[in-house]
Amino acid sequence: xxxxxxxxxxxxxxxxxxxxxxxxxxxxxxxxxxxxxxxxxxxxxxxxxxxxxxxxxxxxxxxxxxxxxxxxxxxxxxxxxxxxxxxxxxxxxxxxxxxxxxxxxxxxxxxxxxxxxxxxxxxxxxxxxxxxxxxxxxxxxxxxxxxxxxxxxxxxxxxxxxxxxxxxxxxxxxxxxxxxxxxxxxxxxxxxxxxxxxxxxxxxxxxxxxxxxxxxxxxxxxxxxxxxxxxxxxxxxxxxxxxxxxxxxxxxxxxxxxxxxxxxxxxxxxxxxxxxxxxxxxxxxxxxxxxxxxxxxxxxxxxxxxxxxxxxxxxxxxxxxxxxxxxxxxxxxxxxxxxxxxxxxxxxxxxxxxxxxxxxxxxxxxxxxxxxxxxxxxxxxxxxxxxxxxxxxxxxxxxxxxxxxxxxxxxxxxxxxxxxxxxxxxxxxxxxxxxxxxxxxxxxxxxxxxxxxxxxxxxxxxxxxxxxxxxxxxxxxxxxxxxxxxxxxxxxxxxxxxxxxxxxxxxxxxxxxxxxxxxxxxxxxxxxxxxxxxxxxxxxxxxxxxxxxxxxxxxxxxxxxxxxxxxxxxxxxxxxxxxxxxxxxxxxxxxxxxxxxxxxxxxxxxxxxxxxxxxxxxxxxx
Length: 622
Fold this sequence. Notes:
By secondary structure, the chain is an alpha+beta fold. It has 3 domains: about 30-210, Bulb-type lectin domain (Agglutinin, subunit A, Orthogonal Prism); about 295-390, Phosphorylase Kinase, domain 1 (2-Layer Sandwich); about 395-620, Transferase(Phosphotransferase) domain 1 (Transferase(Phosphotransferase), domain 1, Orthogonal Bundle), CATH 1.10.510. About 30% of the residues lie in helices and about 15% in strands. The protein contains 14 helices and 23 strands. The strands form 7 sheets. A 5-stranded antiparallel β-sheet has the order 17-18-19-21-20, with helices on both faces. Strands 1-10-11-12 form a 4-stranded antiparallel β-sheet, with no helix packed on it. It has a 4-stranded antiparallel β-sheet with strand order 2-7-8-9, with no helix packed on it. Helix 8 runs antiparallel to helix 10 (about 490-505), helix 8 (about 410-430) runs antiparallel to helix 13 (about 570-580) and helix 10 (about 490-505) runs antiparallel to helix 12 (about 545-560). The longest helix has about 45 residues, at about 210-250.
């Protein structure tokens, strides 16, 4: 209390102020850290909220890496008492939250999920834990740094249905085991971050399996060397004994020209006879001829029908010029995409010829190509079985008002560069030169990390030259539209159109300048000539983009869609111009097709432009 005469405070009030300051500090801390180490069904973590282990050793929450200018956030664990934070584990290291704040919660089936915002009302799951638990599940952060999901909420070791220690990142904590766990079905290993601002898996990892393999190989080599040495010694001893016996027989036998002992000795070894060795050579040739076929699974029709639920309509995920595509699940649980090739388009192609084409496609392996797993042949039915990519095709993202928010500029640039590298492999780096003939947004699929993979490559070869299956209107080069001429530069033209669509988030088929009736190519050319090329960028990007890269991508796209094929760059030059910030780019000329913004139907356009269709593409051995 305050003395009325002097206005001074008593000792009781002087001790009250520190207590008030301590209470204020505690209230401030409570806004960013919950008071428990557990997340239940009714709880969640978002923004700067965290949970701390019981002994206050580790803390879990969302963080943004240092120097991450694009605002990506991750769910991580760090030491609670070390400033930094010093991150030791990351959950969604390959799928960051783009539109903060992210949310960590338990789903109705007991999974841990991280949610990202598409807009103010809709959220999507960017990461989830393993198999579902139960409605009583809880998640707990332990003092050893392990983040566990308890199926019954007890936290006992027997109740753990998922744990972070099975999925280490770049730090090995005490108690964390590495290597293969056959019971849990995981291969645990630590992997470096890609960079200080990017926790996605880098290139460095202590490969224990490779070390064990190296030891086994060295041991096998040592044993082989000993066996070879023993064999040589035995052969030397046997030869010496044989020569001694031959000498004794020669001394004891009468001299005769018919008793030529060396010939008689050779006849005692029929395995050296070329007649006996010949079937072995034939077997080797047969095995070599069957090797490629053995490497490509041939599915029976019944397995495909079971996987796709008899090609049910709800499993249909797309349809192109070569036939519909269905998602399915094989008997072993593997998800696949099955392309059902249009009947009557194979022109009497036999099963052997079809298999040769499929094996050729299967040999094309690249990071930016969809992987072919096998095929199915049943009478005149032909089906191709591909890996299933859950994010499906690029057009679903770039042309959707909500989903294209997930594709920030850095990700769009990575997609553009990935498509270019995949096309470069088809044109120049594979064993055979492949012209895609239908490159478009719906034929570029995205894996779980949004890495682009080109699909439908090589399938055009299976269809006859008089089929109008090459190129979709809007991606069609002028020389093909007018004269039916196809070359690698036709693919380059389609790539240029696709790049402009990725930059702008707009389809090429449409009118974007009503006064001049311009499609996307014409509109992009007009903006470029007016010095406003950067204004082509999707307005949803805001100010979060790289100015020079946007201009460079726009300029490369306009170079690719020039009217004359000889003026378009090769795809390897395109990759160089995109990847190098110091590359000198020529000024583009006017695009080849710039004023077709009218809503003419695709069927009418194809009918008018493919009267003189011929095929001039072929496979060339390198």
